[in-house]
Task: inverse folding
């Protein structure tokens, strides 16, 4: 029993390289978040006839958590990366203001829960999709509270469903393919995700 505990601890403990790479990843995706936010007014116009469908665009703000979790593979990685990315987006400037930090926290917790459901032992396509689905759910519910509270329930429900679909496709599938591509280049050789490219 003591041997199994001793083996499990290093697997979940953070190394300096984990912190550095997670921070760099968060900053890089934060710039993407900023660009994604800049395009949102266009999406607003395009979805004016039925605003809830804009939830299909929301998955772009969920990539940091899912991708960070897939690469770092440590408890807290998804939340850390999502928070860093949100902070960078806020500092660069967005019409959402610093409420992006609240969103980043909530969405990071959602992605974290997706990985926790598998006890941080699997990081395959199914896990990525589930993490994307859960964080999409968290995004949809939180944004209905923060921004869409005047909508009818059917609209709010439609937005949540759209955000979950977006979470699966953009945050889940896209992050999985991105992590796999990075692993195959050897850029992640210091991580378990890089040493098991076939798994992810």
Result:
């Amino acid at each position: 029993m003591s041997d199994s505990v001793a083996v499990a601890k290093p697997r979940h403990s953070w190394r300096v390289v984990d912190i550095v790479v997670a921070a760099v990843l968060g900053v890089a995706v934060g710039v993407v978040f900023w660009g994604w936010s800049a395009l949102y007014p266009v999406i607003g116009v395009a979805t004016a006839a039925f605003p809830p469908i804009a939830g299909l665009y929301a998955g772009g703000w969920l990539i940091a958590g899912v991708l960070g979790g897939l690469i770092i593979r440590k408890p807290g990685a998804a939340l850390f990366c999502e928070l860093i990315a949100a902070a960078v987006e806020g500092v660069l400037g967005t019409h959402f203001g610093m409420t992006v930090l609240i969103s980043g926290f909530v969405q990071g917790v959602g992605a974290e829960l997706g990985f926790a459901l598998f006890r941080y032992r699997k990081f395959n396509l199914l896990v990525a999709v589930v993490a994307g689905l859960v964080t999409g759910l968290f995004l949809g519910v939180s944004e209905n509270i923060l921004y869409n509270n005047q909508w009818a329930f059917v609209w709010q429900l439609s937005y949540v469903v759209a955000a979950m679909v977006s979470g699966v496709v953009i945050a889940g599938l896209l992050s999985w393919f991105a992590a796999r591509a990075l692993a195959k280049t050897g850029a992640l050789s210091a991580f378990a995700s890089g040493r098991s490219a076939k798994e992810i």
About this structure: The chain has one domain: 2-195. Residues 1-10 have pLDDT under 50 and may be disordered. The two ends are 29 Å apart (CA to CA). The CA atoms of residues 1 and 8 lie 11 Å apart.
